[in-house]
Design a protein that fits this description.
mainly alpha; about 80% helix
């Protein structure tokens, strides 16, 4: 636990940069859906929703990068990012198990690891006190 607390800056930077890769969905929504889920959504509404989804995920990634350099903001940023990732993981596991063999399965695994690391940091920080 102490190791995670001491290395959270680097954990947040790597997590944030990985999360920012979803900007791809805002730029190329059809390609992002195909590579992640192996399926397509058609029409202008689907394009708007997927682009917005990608932009919001990338914003969470940007917050993680920012939080790596802003210790007072870390608890809120890690809580928001963790809840966002937990929502995604829960939805895929409960509603979209058929997609786990696709690239999204890797995303679920990586996001799950991030959730655990963020939670360990938040618990360890509370025990140790603010930075």
């Amino acid at each position: 636990m102490t190791w995670i607390v001491s290395k959270i800056k680097w954990i947040m930077l790597v997590s944030g940069l990985l999360t920012c890769t979803m900007l791809y969905a805002a730029i190329a929504p059809e390609a992002a859906l195909q590579s992640s889920f192996g399926e397509q959504l058609d029409g202008p509404l689907a394009s708007i929703i997927v682009r917005n989804w990608g932009a919001l995920i990338a914003l969470v990634g940007g917050m993680l990068v920012y939080g790596a350099y802003d210790p007072p903001g870390r608890p809120l940023i890690l809580t928001v990012a963790g809840l966002s990732k937990l929502t995604f993981v829960t939805l895929v596991v409960t509603q979209g198990r058929q997609f786990l063999s696709r690239q999204v399965g890797i995303s679920v695994a990586v996001d799950s690891l991030m959730i655990v690391l963020f939670a360990i940091y938040l618990i360890g920080r509370r025990r140790r006190g603010p930075e």
